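Internal QA ticket QA-208
Title: Verify multi-chain structure generation after dependency bump
Assignee: T.L.

Test input:
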Amino acid sequence: MSVKKELPFLQESFRSSEVRVQLGHNLWIDSAGDKKDIQVDDFPIFVFLRAVGFESVILKPESHQYWDVWTQRMAEYEQIFIQDPENLVIDECVWNELDSASGEFVIQCLLPATHTPSTRQSLKAQVGLPPPFAAPLKIDPVALQKFVEEVQRQSAQETLLRIQSILREFKQDSRRTTPETWSNLLCDVLTIALESRELEKALQVARDHQEDLKRIWNDHARFLRLCGAYDAKPQELSDWASIFESLENRMLVIYLQQNLHERAGPQILKLMHARIQRDPDRMIEFCLANQAEIQKQLLPWMTPYWKLKHFTLVQSEFERAIQRGDGEGDLKLWITSLLKCAPHQALQDLERYFQKKRAFWKRDFPHVQKAILAALQEAPGSESIAYLKRWKLNVQGVLADRIERILSLYSSEQKGGNRK
Amino acid sequence: MNAAILREISSIFTCDFPLFEAEVAALLNIRKYDEYTYLHSLNVARLSVGLGRRLSFTDDMLVDLGWAALLHDIGKLHIPLDILNKMKKFSADELAVMQSHPVEALAALAETQPITLDRLRRLSAAFEHHQRYDLKGYPVVQKKLTLHPFSRIVAVADTFDAMTTDRIYQRRILPDMALKIMAQGFGTIFDPFVLQAFITSMGVYPVGSLVRLDDERLGVVTRYLSESQIDRPEIVLIDKTSSSERFIDLSLPEHRSRKILRSEFPEDFDVNVQEILNEVRR
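Actual output:
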């Protein structure tokens, strides 16, 4: 905006040789020495110049050519100063305006005669107390109430929305932060979001920063806090589990082994359940390719998902478990899995453990036999009952009694079912 | 916890310090790193909480606001000292580093454990205090959100204190001049409600200002009466010998025609403002 028309002293300067605006005295003085009043406060640029220490501004006749350029520069300095007072170094700014033809100043800002230029002194700044708020507060009461209510209304959701935005910005400029610090921060923000029951916010943060979360999964304390922060409802399970997308199966199994007794225990179970449900084939693959310790943890979870195509692999692992000398309980898990994959084929294969010993050097497998019976006892069917009846002829003692018990139980259940 | 820091904080607002151990530690880190930033943080807190009291904030709100203000520059812990204390104009790279301190507040926060929802909320001021009310400041964000009310208060307090504090390379600006300049940012740089509340409750010439009247006499602003206009305070004259009147209350009808020409630096006239105010209060 040009203010030339509003500046009588500027117009005067076009006529006379020089006009001096005395900033601290609200005066302007022409070349003849005549003084006239002005209200410096009405001109923001002069207020700014006075504030930063200038005593007066001299305007030469040619200044009207440079007025717009000069005022624009002053306005820019003022904006920098208002936004960041520390970023405007007075001594480094160009306050005066030169006439390109004559090389002389046409607009000149003068400091007081007593002004001392900047010197390198001790770094201890002289900082005093700010002034008190001792004047009457003159504001609209409705606006005041609205402002206070705005403060009170700052909910968890609002806070998380802000932080989410900040994290996005920070990600682009995180070169000065260690990856570890960044991951820790993300995890903590996620945890807070979940503790505040802001699942949607947590999902957004996790989606934006999934790669960076990988580092967290080895931090047991942080993982347990995060995992235990939210008890997902059934319809939320899949979404909630996606927060842990980059958590390796291996680590999840370790947490399953070591931390079920913690507050996060139920959530660890839920996470495992959700993961298997989402991609059972991948979990089966992981299970079958892994060590015995991990297999033991995962087998009970796999039961609903075994298919025919898995039979051969499960059978190999079962054989391996026998050779390792695994206990009855562990063997039962494999047998259950075999029966789930292909019941008919499994029973055919398992029959060899109940065949009559034809030579004395043939091995007995009493613990395998017990494991087979334990597995069949849990879910007997007509086909397995037929096999049991055959096997009973080849065994004695405890094993025979056990088979008898299974057969009796099945028979009474069948009769009870028929009566109904 | 550091007793000196606790005393300073207690002079600004009351809080249960054991709950704020991490915050106190962060403030101590600021003090160790750069004394100016620490003193500035205290002043910004004084101004912010002072305004909050005038706005009738509850005690809990004042505590939250106080901590938000105390730690608004926590990101400067990650700015190299040679840039932080530079006396000359920043190069483009140096300016970028300096202007990253709001973003660096996050890194500093990450070191403040444990992170809680309350700490995240207070961090807003650290991140937002240079964004401007019209969101044209920095850091530049893709998603424009309304600034947190505390950020809007801290932005005003931060600018005022920065303008009115001496620096080794630059003299401070007098408070009334600072308020006049800041008024140029009404609705753009600053929240208009907050700025108006700040200016009116401090008065155009804050208590303690050394002013020159239109008859060239010097005086110190002592108070504003409840019905005073914000630029018509009571003044105690420095020069007692030339007139019988000691106090001039510009809000009174008999002084309607009198006015303040400008404020002055007390040290230029060897005036001890605090001594004068103490004497008046006695």
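Spot checks passed. Chain B touches chain A through 100 residues (CB under 8 Å).
Status: verified.
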